[in-house]
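tool_call: predict_structure(chain=1)
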Amino acid sequence: MPYLVETGSGARTSGLGSSLAGAKWRFVDGTPEDWQVSTYPQMQFNLPDAAGPGRGLTNGGHSLLLPLEFQRSGPLGDLNLEMGRWLRPAGQSNGWIAGALLGRDVAENVEVMAELHIETAARWGARETVANVGLRISPSDHYTLLASAGRDLSNTLGARQTGIAYLGLQLHL
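tool_result:
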């Protein structure tokens, strides 16, 4: 769940953003040199005290993301490709996502990554393109720490974000 901060016109608005809950299922799981295929459906929703539509930081209603992810290891590192569909409530535009990520191990249990991510409106018109760099640290078989930072390269979907940061904890069940 992100904490959003918007500044402009001398005013500052902040609060909790939309939450995402989901699960990943890898249904084609071969060796790292083979293509691995997974899906990770996610439900996006607002908590009651979040910075929802009343503050103008998030949209109302629940949305569903239905993505596919393809992963393969190669000489430069791990390549991840994804594509998916956002299904949004009535009155909001459905959309698409697409992305590419290259990750490379730099030490035992430490991986650095670079990502290009695109989100578009329903008919591939308006879009947001984001570039990120990140780090994945796996100190145990039970969890992974994730961090990334990036920025918009272009954005015709809405207000341009000058900076994006992410910190997460992935649990392995």
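agent: The chain has one domain: 3-171. Proceeding to next step.
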